[in-house]
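Below is how a single chain appears once it has passed through the pipeline. First comes the sequence as given, then the structure the pipeline wrote out for it. We keep one example in the README because the format questions we get most often are answered faster by looking than by reading.
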Amino acid sequence: MSILNFVEKFPDEHSCREHFRLQREEAGLKCKKCGCQKHYWLKAKYQWQCSSCKFRTCLRSGTTFQSSKLPLRKWYLAMALMTMTKKGISAKEMQRQLDHSRYETVWKMMHTIRAAMGNRENLYKLTGMVEFDEAYIKQSTPKDTELKRGKGSKGVKNVAVAGQSTPLEDIKTGKKSKHFGYLKMKVLAGHEASQIDDMVMENIDEKSIVFSDLSKSYINIKDYVDIHYQEKSSVESAKTTLQWVHIAISNAKRWILGIHHKIKGKYLQAYLDEFCYKTNRKYFGDRLFDRAIIAMAKIYW
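Resulting structure:
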């Protein structure tokens, strides 16, 4: 969605509230008190009332917006700016675009949106052919701390990266190629095999075929998937066996460095959730904004 389309579709607070009301009704309402899913709208009260127990539900109640006092239009504009821009947007730039006085409020709002994106991503598992690898992403540290790169450094976070790829055949050439399908990135607490095992069990379907290098941390992956194929790390394997997962890692590092510069380790997963959410829906176009609204409207009781 472009800025012009956004302004035309959502000119004021009322238009955003009406749009969100329709989205919630389409997704389906659930009574907090009795669990009934049949409601009717009270226009004068601007609330839903349960057909069974008469319990009333407010417009934002039960959703990610529930505890926020910000106008819904600011939330909508923030989601539009985060989804319509290919490279993303920093909290400082978001504060300027929203003309908001407090940076902390805007920063928390963006993290709330990222949390909703992450919750949406956690609903799905990778299937089919999956490339698996790890990445070391630099985190924000005190300026006087000397950092070393790679495994074991205090200045980096270990991230497990899994990318779903589907073999395709080019109609013109008849040659087989790979097309990137879906992406998962999870920050790990350590480098042990148990950390990798948990990531694989939670994010990869047991009937999948996993490709990886010969890391000792991957010794148990074969127990959780159908086939686990390992190949020694080399320049050739980086271009063939693990092509797409390495491209994803490179893009994520460049995105963090170019937009956010440095990120504290405890917030890294939130930023990776946003990156994966947008990457997995890169062909959605204008629908990406609508999908973000659906993620925010999900009921959490």
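The mean pLDDT is 88.

See the next section for the split statistics.
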